[in-house]
Structures are given as structure tokens and as C-alpha cells.
Amino acid sequence: MIVQKFGGIAMQSEEMRNYSMNHILDGIKQYEKIVVVVSAIGRLGDPYATDSLINLSEAFASDYVARDLVASCGELIASAVLSAELHQFGVSNTVLHGKQTGIVTAGDFGDATLEAIDTSNIIKSLEQVDCVIIPGFQGMDKLGNVMTLGRGGSDLTAVALADSLQASHVEFFKDVPGVLTGDPNFVSDYEKYDFLSFDEFLTLLNGDNTIVQKRAAILAKEKAIPLYVRGIASSETGTWITN
Description:
Keywords: ATP-binding, Kinase, Nucleotide-binding, Transferase. By secondary structure, the chain is an alpha/beta fold. The protein contains eight helices and twelve strands.
């Protein structure tokens, strides 16, 4: 089993989602069962992006419970869209959300910590379908409130699920072919790393480089979960990050 994580760019358009679905099909062919974690569709300015949802009302600035609830909706929408399109693609799948995921959170709204994951429902679902889709970035506290995991929290969801499910690794699909020596938006002379240690990778996550959430990378290092960063629109070999 593997966990695949698709970010906002991978979910942004029908063309990009077709790339995503082909990667999901490839994952099923190779590993039989996969768990897919998705982020909200697009980025600020797109109607269902997290920041766009939060900006619907100034009142969310002082109501943390309501803000986390609306912030979590982008991933739910993305999950529903991907699930429906996968069904058209002929892929058996289901979406688990809210309490169904078994993800229990605690701490502060907007920057919650993962307290526990009960994987029994996910495992049971994988007996019936080939692909389980989980909305990233969120969990529920013991009172049933939705809590979000901070910026880039879907990455943390993916790594934590991989640990709890004993998945072989996590695949992150990006708009770049892997971890690069420079930002292709600003420089033309860059190379792709084929392999990185976690220590090497973590040093690259300082500053503006957010290719994987740092909390997620730290957890992956602690739990010895290999990460594979690769391009969404490419079959090119990506970057492996391991201990």
C-alpha cells in the first residue's frame, strides 16, 4: 500500500485531474491498494481554494471554530470531484471524511496537532474498493469540532496516514519534476536531486521553499517513511527522500 498526495495545482483543472487519475491508476496497478490525500482546488483567487473560502467573511477572523469549518470545505469539495471523476474513469473508490477518517486532533484551531488515527474504517473500506480518498488538512477533536492542521497540513495528513497504515512510502505530486536546486520561476539553471537524506531535505525547507510542509517532513524522518516528490504532468523520475 502507498499514500498519494495531490495538491491544489494537481486538482485545479480537468486536465490536471486527468494526470492525477492516471497516477492513481498506476499506483493501483503496482501496489493494488492506495490511499489518496487531496488539498483544496487551486490557490487564492480560485473559488474553492482555502484562502478564498476564509475570505468569504471578515467574521472568520474572530471565530476560530467557524473559520476552521469553512477552511476544511475546500478539501471536501476536491475529494468529491476526484471521487466522481475516478468513478467515470472506472476506478472503485470511496471518500471518507470527518469522523469516518479516524483522525483525532487537539490543540489550537488553525494549527492543530494530530492526537491519534484510528485506521479501522480505512482498512475496512480498502477491502471493498481500490482507492480511499481522504480530505487533507483536517481532523476532529473529541467534541466533534473540525480542526485544521496549519498551512500545508494536507502533507502532514498524508505522512501520518502512511505511518498509521504502514504504507511503503508517500508520493507527493507537484508542478515541478522533483526537488530542484533552484526555483524554475526565477532561474533557468537548475538541476533535480535524485536522492536526498531527510537532513539534507529539511535544510532546503527553510525560507520560501514549501514543496513539502516541514512538520510533515520531520514526522516522516522520525517514522522513517520514505517520501517521493515527483511531477504531476510527467512520468520522469522524481526525488526520493529517505533516511
